[in-house]
User: Fold these one by one.
Assistant:
Number 1:
Amino acid sequence: MKQLLSFIRKEFNHILRDKPTIMILLLMPVIQILLFGFALSTEVKNTNVVILVPKADNEIRHIIDRVNASDYFDIVGFVHNADEIENAFRRGDAKLAMIFENNFSENLKRNGKAHIQLIADASDANTAKTFTFYATSIINSSQKDFSLQNNANGMILPEIKMLYNPQMKSAFNFVPGVLGMIMMLICAMMTSVSIVREKEMGTMEILLVSPMHPIYIILSKITPYLLLSLVNFGTVILLSVFVLHVPIVGSFFSLLMISVLFIFVALSMGLFISTVTNSQLIALLISGMGMMLPATLLSGMIYPIENMPVLLQILSDLVPARWYIIAVKDIMIKGLSFSDVLHEALVLTAMAIFFITISLKKFKVRLE
Amino acid sequence: MIDVKNLYKNYYPNDSGKFAGIGKPGIKKNESVLSEDTGISFNVSEAELFGLIGPDGAGKTTIFRILTTLILPDKGIATLGGLDVVNDYKEIRKKVGYMPGRFSLYQDLTVLENLEFFATVFNTTIKENYDLIKDIYVQIEPFKNRRAGKLSGGMKQKLALCCALIHKPEILFLDEPTTGVDPVSRKEFWGMLQKLKTQGITILVSTPYMDEAALCDRIALIQNGNFLNIDTPENIVKQFNRDLWSVKSNQMHHLLTDLRTFDSIDSSFAFGDSIHFTVKHKKDFSKSEFESLLLAGGHNKVEIRKINPGIEDCFMELSKKTDL
């Protein structure tokens, strides 16, 4: 026991004395949460719009006012012909052009039907889709206003309710993702590097030629990173609750439980990496490419898993972060209880057991 | 204390034809050394200071790693105090102290922290065995709060020796402890080893420096994974039963190539600022005649002396005679 404690203290000394690394490890979650929260928002706001109006009247003004009033659009100018629209797109001044047909109001009143053409810069397809959707819904709601004025009936008016995330904040999606990513990074990457460093520095030779049980080496390597991950978990949760206003609807204890479970999976993966390589660089590459990339790209954090080809969907089943993110969303945002995420918890437990078993089997009591 | 019999290790797997390791078979060995066909054999008695002397890549570290249970031999048996290095590795790891060739302590921990850490790893305390390391530790004590990475080369080795000794091992393995250490520290270091020997600790030490060989009780000269000779340093020197000459001139650069054109000269090697050579037949060689030939060949300030051989001369001679 004394051996183990002394070993753990030594590990803390290594970590705390490496100032740049500890700073990165502690600040990374803060920076990532703030970046995703404010800079890398997937919400589309302030799209530049140009408008072509043959002859302004009340109806057109009504629509333009609504467009202007929304957060999504900035009207940057009025144009008079198709050439000017094209120029605006080419110069990048506008992402969307709104063209009212001739006699818009008359047609609307007389036929109950009038046309507005929307031209979008679709070089970024997703964004274009999003803001044309916004524009369409503004036009639709204006139409509703007109029909109410004219007492027309027989219209179907859908009422949409956004469950769990009424304000459609993207933070609800990325907070679980960032949690998964950071824990993967710190646990898998740092644990593997710190064990492999002993091999690379030659200190593993001395540790092996000692009466100490190899399990102590493993335990003392993972303890500091377990604690560090819990600190980061706290940081992320505090930031998302108080800065991004993402509430914890479910129980905090369940959230903590599933997170500790996920940390164990990540630690065991780090352990596994350290048993298959002898160089810090390779350990970094494996954990970077092999763990971090799937944790961000295949976990459903950025790209919805349902949109992926079947092969990638199957692959994503193997990514622990995917299961963790689902569980965190269920607990934190939907407010489900731990028993509702039992499936995810079992998958994570199985993964942890798998990696710990083969790591212990592969852990070498000799140099070769 | 250490018994090694027919030890063989090839790093190339499964007899692929290539060989790198120790105990390469099928080698015509010096008749005075080993009778066995394959592998290397030697033994070290209790409280003996045994040296493995040989150039880089000779296989010294391989022998250390097998004996410290870090790697497995392909063939052969090695026991330490009756414990087998393959089967009883757990027991052996409690009893030996190992100082690897490369400085292998934690550079970001202080001197004291390193020592304390290794003491607890071996289930002991600094206090318990302080008398054993006292002589060495007092020299590094002024720097006890300095990080190990910031110590000088000699200080690092002293710290590493302290760490290897802290649990009072029965056998101490020191793999090139003085490589990269200044001459004064090297001398001190060997002084310490002599003291440790008097405490009953068996020491196996390796070094590429031939001048350190004379400080061991017995030495094994090793090259290309095989032993050239095992004996006391005195006996090894005695076995050099030929005349050895040393020559210097103002054109050392050409001297060696010129020497090799002389038919009467058997072998010649550069030794620091002079060249050592032996002659084929004593009676065919006259010092004055040789000197005048060199002078005629354009050399000046020629100095020729008959000298007593050292370990290095013996090593060169043996490695030439033995087909390795």
Number 2:
Amino acid sequence: MSAQISNLPKGAHQAVTSLMEAAERIEAGAPTGEEAALRRRAREQFAALGLPTRRLEAWRYTDLAGALQGPLPPLSSAQDARPNKTIEEAIGLFRESAEQMCALAGSELSATIVFFDGRFSAQHSDLEKLPKSVRLRAGYAPLANGDIDNDMLGSLNLSLASDGFELVVDPDAGAQNFVHLLFLSAKKESCSMHSRAKVRLNKGASLKLLETHIHKNFVSGLQTHLTDVAVGEGAKLEYACIEYNNPQHISLARTEVRLEQEAQFSCTALGAGGKLVRHEYNILFEGGGAKAELGALSLAGAGETRDVNVLLHHKVPECLSDTLVKNVLTGDARGVFQGLVRVEPGAVRSNGRQTSKALLLGRDASMNAKPELEIFNDDVECAHGSAVGEIDRDALFYLRARGISENDARQLLIKAFLGDVLERIEDEALRINTESHAIRWMENVFAQTQEA
Amino acid sequence: MNAAPLLQIENLHAEIDGKAILRGVDLAIERGQVHAIMGPNGSGKSTLAYILAGKDGYDITSGRILFKGEDLADMDVETRARAGLFLGFQYPVAIEGIATISFLKEAVNARRAASGKDKLDAVEFLKQVRSLASQLSFDESMLKRYINLGFSGGEKKRAEILQMLLLEPVLAVLDETDSGLDVDALKTVATGIESLRSPERAMLLITHYQRLLQHVRPDRVHIMAKGSILRSGGPELAQKVEDGGYAEFQQAAQA
């Protein structure tokens, strides 16, 4: 099911070899024996597992080995991660734009926490703006978690992670306004970047998070990012993620979420571009009456593949999951959605919905959608659906017949296609912010398709 | 300079998928006039409306259409609309995800931009929309809803008229705007149409029945069947259809 390293095609072999070498170096330089041991275990596991092949069901539509094209040295030292003037400006701009959007919604930005080239940047972060009940700790050490590291992505990331953070919200506390996590990179040459995060909401806590990844200048690199989320009893996390990638960027991310009793989790992810971008969501219902809402918007152009892979594991009664995945694909872009709602025998009165919709704007664009249900009891309400289509010609004609240009009409229809996912974001500041990115994103991509 | 008719259709032949639908339509409409085209189902009335608006899929095999002296064949859909041609749809299209009010704004601003005017001030625009909506008994809450989505038949037609009044077209082609309306809605819609009547504008009402024409009195009535206009006359022609149906005209054409 997985390709041994010796059997890989040349480009992938070079990439994996360089990753392994880097892992050994990091291991040798680890500050504690404990960390070195952890990294070694992860590296050995990665070596044993190799890269997933398309014979593995979860990777059936995504060819990782084929995408890797040569060595990927890591961003090895903190000195490498020194922001230049352009990046300083970019950070300023993102902070400013987030603040403006918050102002539009009548609120303020809580804090911006900046990660540059995979490393926490204290200089650019304003941790002091976080309420006392919300604590952020940067670093690698607190982040080991045996459970999520048993596969290729987990072990690769654990062996190489350069930095990360842990965000903890005290019981019954929270930040009123959203916290902004900003990840930027500017490395021009091929390299790899690995980070991990933990978000813990204690009982009754609440948090709104905006996570932005801007890797427009990150050329032919590999990024892995793992986020481990735990939402305690009655706690509520509203999460929005925005990422822009360079067309050569390869990104593998996983968000694993554990929900306790009556916990609420909603996540809206907006992602554009990348040679191969895959996001796995594993959502585990561990306490009854919990609720998870997941919305993923992907936009890909020529030569790009975006893959969303979702597991919703209903282990306990009366939980609700609602997944809405939308792809807008131009050129010969490929979209992939694999979603599994698994309902265990004891998880009675579960409610699981999954929908995938794709809008194909390029003649050679394609979408592979595979929503699945595995239900082991009779007392459930589950539904899934999938649709792939082009822009509705009648709708286009109707708008044009009112004087709206064909370009504008197409844009309106594409925005309309994406609109219902964005509308699910409850917090107004978070929604306005995400929407403004979506609009900018659409306009950029639209300009590109017009040129093509 | 306005010697030429606003709309001049000359010997128009058109087909869809190789099947002839229009077989030689001639029609001239002057500014200030209201014309009505009546005819049985399948006579080609809606095809004519769509061709005027520029819908894809129709092949004009001969003849031409001049609008303000320009050949419509040289104008795309939005250019026609911006030049003041409006089609009121028989079946308005529902579009999920676009709020009616945003759509109206886009449309109004597109039309304004075409005539070199600035975008309408948001407050001014809202005021105008609200006043027209109330005139048409179009519930204001509908403006926030997606375009035509979940609208009743009557609401869709009111929304079409609302768009027409906002866009102030030079030529309004209303395709079966009366169908599916109850008596009150018909009156409201008719009042809306009447309010646009002016010496600068013209209208073409396409209808199966005569009832709209009791409220909006046409200057000319044309009977269309099998892809051409069989007879043209004054408003009395509509009454004749009401009394005797279309059979008489069709027999006369065959004789």
Number 3:
Amino acid sequence: MPFKSAVVATLAAGLPMLFNSVPFFLLLVPTLLLYYVPFMQRFQLHVIIAASFIFYAYNMPWLLLLLIVSLGINTLASHAVVFGRADRRKMYATVGVTLNLVVLILFKYSPLIGRSFFEGSGIGEFLIAIPLPVGISFFTFQGISLVVDAYRGKDVPDYASIVVKGMWEHTLRISTFIAFFAQLVAGPVVKAHEFLPQVRTKYFKDIAWNSAFASLVVGYFLKMVVADNLKDQTFWITFPYFKDMHSITLLVLLFGYSMQIFADFAGYSLIAIGLARLFGYILMDNFDFPYIAATFSEFWRRWHISLSSFLREYLYIPLGGNRMGGFHTYKNLMITMVLGGLWHGAAWSYAVWGFFHGLVLALERLTKDLGWSMKGKVPRFLHMLFIFTSVTFAWLLFKLPEFDHVIVYVRMLLQNTDIPNIQPIIIFFTALFSVPVVAYHLLYLWTREPRPIVARIKPIVYGGMLFLILVNSGGGASFIYFQF
Amino acid sequence: MIRRAFLVFLILTIGYALFVEFVKVDRDTSQHQASGNRIKAEQFVFGTDDPDATVIVGSSLSFRIILDSLPAGTSNLGFGGLSIYDGLELIRRSGKHPARVLIETNMLFKEPDHSFLDAVFAPGLYALRREIPILQEENQPTGVLVGWLKEQLRTVPDASATGTDSMAMSQTLFDTNMASFAVVPPDSVQDRYLDLLATEVAALEAQHIEVIFMEVPVSPEITASPLAMRSRAMIEARFPDHRFLRTDPNITWRTADGLHLEPHNAQRFSSWLAKALR
């Protein structure tokens, strides 16, 4: 095999360790012990970095090179922005952000550019062959956050802790911030000003056991019991298999996919948050019961919060946000959401997905500007149902990256009302494994008022989840958001 | 809270282990195709090593062979969505020594899925699953529940089938299958798969396991397709001294999508196979 093909094949096949794999636990336990052993306290950052490198390079050592290049770019750029010549600060920041974007575009969007504009040519073949390293969207965004925060200076909270003078110490801190295995490959997208002020010596006695336990149990339950079991049912949303299915089955499958994508990603985020807690770090909540949202803007305040807040802070507001009002606000929303859509994947269907969300956000804003609010006139429940249905239909663009197939799916949904194949087993299992996600949201609504019974049943619920993780996990699968 | 949660977990686990040991009845507990594959694989690798056994290795086409018609001790490693190489590797990694192995020849050029076998033989978990039955796929609570429900309702179709099982003949899937059987892979690709098959066959025969090839009947159009004809010719040329079981080409078989036999025809073929093996 030629060298280039060998490298491409190796990169394309590799994934980091999965949080639900045996090798991960074999790495986690000694890392945690080593991290808290008193004589290693001075080397806590070294321990995290070493474990993170093993985690990332586990199936594919080649990947580490790219991560190290990214760490190098961001360490040097952020240091130069703060401690370099004052008249060149802007240039260093621009170079840092640009290099991050170049890495992202080269590895993530080359195949899309090759397929869209250079199909059949030598350049096209080269671009299409460039593999997608897992987690690149996350660690390049964190790099951008670092360089921008360093440049913004005093406006940023805890600015002094973002870039320290000593180069070696700075390198260790930045490597921990970007490469920390808990959030390296699928987020949450951590911002420099949120993470770096937390870097200091950590003590075993300070571990927040209850919250770490709760995050880990709910996270593993959502991922291994809910998402991994739903995955084997929603497999049927694959062209052309769905064409012969009854409308009811198609509707239930779509609902199931909506539950699956939430359970998969929220599960991963909760595991990441729980793991970080074990190491003394607090990562921001990434999901806040998004399916109870009654408006699209509320949905985006509850779904993938770390990405939405990143896009708001580092794209929407720098574009002008809503400061100029009217058309400019709508335009900025559209740009932010289309780019946010493309961030999810190198296919035009993701841009369409982003366009849809940008459009509805802009329309929502327009109705608000015109004073056409429906608040109070229509019950909140109906608002929630409408938002959930819209968001769920939009997920089809994630599941079926071919736009034609999305159209066919919707057509079959409307057409296949009188064919005999209702597939009760698929419906039964999809509904069954969707129940926890529905219950999770309903429980949140129910417990917004203090309910003493909740504290009493908590151990039963967590014990039940642990039991189901042990005996009812689905077939192992990587996380949906790894591809992003 | 953590201590109490672990206590609840322990009570549930011990209670369920007792249920599986003393109360649970043997039923079909597969929840979907992948779960059906996993159950079959685990039953095979954790089962006893029967030196008189017959093992069928194949794809979703063999998946439908009904074991009730075949001699006792026959195992079906026909896996929906997987290839013959997965079944062959499963035999090798399990260390089992059956008397004979029937290899399906319809889907020679399908890649093995290493993730399937890696999941079955996952280090650490494999040993745990062998010793602790509640960790095995067939004992998942939701599978046990649906197995019971299926038995109560009786009319519910088998969830582990490949989705087309319970359907009327699907023209869409037939067209898709016809299109895939119209294309013959390049010679280099064919040779690679045949070399892999030859290696697996040699490994079985080195352990004195008889190898028999078998073509599962499909629709007449696919039987006459370029890929099917090429597969047949290559097997005969590469393994001229082996038994090759094939039904009478004049018999027509009803399929759900050109490839997969309908339940009644799967029963017919299973009976035919039982006679051919006698």
Number 4:
Amino acid sequence: MTLEAILVIAMFATFGLILLTGFPVAWALAGTAVIYGIAGHVLVADFGANLWFNWGSSVELFPERIWPLVSSPTLVALPMFIFMGIMLDRSGVAERLMKNMVTLFGVVRGGYAVTVIIIGVLLAATTGIIGASVVLLGMLSLPVMLKTGYNKSLAVGTACATGTLGILIPPSIMLVIMADRLARPETSVGDLFLGAVFPGVLLGGLYISYVLILAWVRPNAAPVPKDVPKVTPRVVANALWAAAPTAGLILAVLGSIFMGVATPTEASGVGAAGAMLLAIANRRMSFEVLRDSLYQTTRTSSFIFAIFLGATAFSVVLRNLGGDQVIEEALLGLPFNNYGILATILFVTFLLGFFLDWVEITLIILPLVAPVVEGMGFNLAWFTIMFAVCLQTSFLTPPVGFALFYIKGVCPPEINTIDIYKGVLPYILLQLTGLAAVFFWPGLVTWLPSVAFN
Amino acid sequence: ANTAQAQDSVRWRMPIAFPSTLPGLASPAPWVAKRLNEISDGSIQIRVSEPGKIVPPFDILDAVSDGKVSAGYTWVGYDQGKVPAIPLFAAVPFGMKPWAFMGWYYFDEGHNLVQEVYANAGYNVHAELCGIIGPETAGWYREPIESLDDYKGLKIRFAGLGGRVLEKLGASVTMMPGGELFQALETGTIDATEFSLPIIDQILGFNKVVKYNLFPGWHQQFTAQYMLINKDDWNALGENQRSQIDTACMAATTYALSESEAKNGKVLMEFQDKGVHTAQIPEPVLKELRATTREVMQEEASKNEDFKRVWESQKEFMKQYKVWGERAYLKPEMMLGGEEANN
Amino acid sequence: MSKDDSNESAQGFHIPEGELDFHHHTELPDTAASLALDRTIGSVGKLISWLWLAVVAVILISVISRYVFGQGSIMLEELTWHIYGIAWPIGLAYTLVTDDHVRVDVLHERMALKTQAWIEVIGLIVLLLPFLGLVLYYSLPYAYDSFIRGETSQAPSGLPYRFLLKSIIPLSMVLLAVAVIARISRCTALLFGFPKPRRQTTSVH
Ligand code: NA
Ligand code: NA
């Protein structure tokens, strides 16, 4: 094994061990980066190790790498969506929406979870920032689901997994970067955006089916709220009336994007303003509510940004130690000559997703495998979307599953990390099911762009 | 390699501002890295770091100057906010054709001026022109531009000094990030956008949502990329290594220009097959754009001494170049083979 | 969501009921120093939280002016992320004070309070402080260079004085370091009785 490989494996192992001690995720990442930065420096400077590691191009660059987080027009959406979620929660608007949606589902068990998934799919169409959507869905839905007696894992798994749909369903910064990286007309941003629509909706559908089946098999996991009235036209009308403002808000955010009034980033601000209006209309707005919502927005945004901070330090040190080369060489060592290669690449991507985030994987692997896939005559857009589904799954796979960290940050105390792991497991399997579906029916990806652009 | 050579060999990480997959704009970077490794027999080893892998694109200059990385490859126009005169070396509205710029850079004052401009702004870098490409398109529009009034209230994404020009003409100019452009154009958040060469624009898929691709790219007749090298590292190189770098970069400039000249025509023909109208901005509108550009350039020159000096030098060069340039070349349709192409 | 009423005493500064919704893992005692420092950082964090309203306002003005008055503004677009870029980095320290940085609690919650405190104090000293120190050390020249070079926005009609926003990086590191020192004192108060614990807080759960 090369020195690079040893260092890369050791770096991940160290990070994993620190995580287990319960030290905050963000600072575990940052601290591991510093330790291995120093190690790399000592190895090169004092032991003459044959590494490309360079203190200047790793540790000294921390400020340069933090700056794009500070000056990002796109990430403004993160605190905005979080504020929107907190406001909806604090003002009682969210709970009312959830309750009324459940009334509509009547005696269908699992109604809350289904509602969360539907809201999540809509939300995914407004933002691609996983931190924002996971946190927002968690805040909106966990309290009410737990109060109704939902199984903890089911509740948290649903919110967490649904929150990751945003990176697949357009607008999606991940697909933009993939298009950029591939630099081919057949995988333009437009093609990938449209290609991702059906797979994204399919995953949402799979999630809903799973919840309904589970609730039917194990009624205790997703009980019907006790006070649900019989479904009469009047009840339906009342429910729709009561749910209208919040649904309207979500649709207004979506609509402002699709009508071209606002960019996705601006739409997040529009949503935040809308949530305040709803709270006022609902007579739940007060100075205290506003103040507390703002305070909590800061704390929630900051714990996510802290993870970004740690992760950016971690990755620059990892790359300097030769992380890219190690993974590239491992990948090139695979048997690249039979039809199963596609499955192999996707499986490896899925496995890497346990440890690396999507940016790393996209930067390292996509340009490497694209020519291979193309050379075998496969449709590259189709492959890229499958690749994207794998990366969406990486948010859910421990130990480095960012959606798991985000949801943990807003969980009520009775939910612990193990509950979250248990909760997302079925959804990881559903992701793989969705992946298989796209694998066997490429039309799911290729059909929409072919009709839309002709 | 013998021991003496091995001691002198350098290992540089070279961050780039665009993915190396982008033709002309960034494809010369890996090419130059590979060539340098080969022609120096391993005494110059360069590893290209894709955008953001090590250094975020907008900080390449600082990172090189501070010696955090030894080299970087970027479109230096990004540093307009730090070095006001630098756009003149990166892309100039109503500026020179690529080969005229190369003439000014290599045989007139360009190469020396860029070193001075960086030094005066407090940067410790050596710059080598290391890639140049032809004109960008004037952008993608829902409707063609027929008069100056069409710019009034037009919601357009337009970077650089050209953006200032359009702002003066009443356009609503934004700088939204590249990743939001497709969606914004599709939903009408913006009416128009410019980005780069046709071959690069097609990757963003603009042709799929709006049908007017306007020319000429008045705002960016040439687009130049540079290899920036930390000055201490540059000075520490051996004479032969320095020649290897400047030779490789000169070759990369040819490489980039050839690639952009070779590939864009085909893409434009494909656009036309897909119903894209490649329209020209009318001459009178262009003249107005030029008049406004002149104002903007004068404002910049009055704010910054180096800007003024470089701008004067370029204007001086253009005076003599015009005599040659307007007489010497055939229009492409006059060339054999050119006349068969339908426009 | 559950209410964690212990926070008022745990944090040492007034937190109204319902404000803190998060689970707090490590119930450390306060010290005189930590009370004062935490209170200060808490006030700063709360103050900057109001900036989110400003972000909402600027976005609305920007959208309205583009759609109603047909006039977009690069300056407003940049103002949005300038305000945002002040708020979250400052919030990092506030979030540390309220102990809202996410942990993996698989083993952590089964540990004795003293073990947790040991992990916390070692982690803060070995992992976090060196990181803060390095970022601070390298971000000071980063911001200072921006100042002496008079860096402005790269957009021709964008905002000037970029060094102000760049200074947020070292500033946030200093605030974080202060929060870390306060927290270390709370750990050592529990482990060694030094500095003198002010109150032993108890979990209400
Ligand atoms: Na999305
Ligand atoms: Na993962």
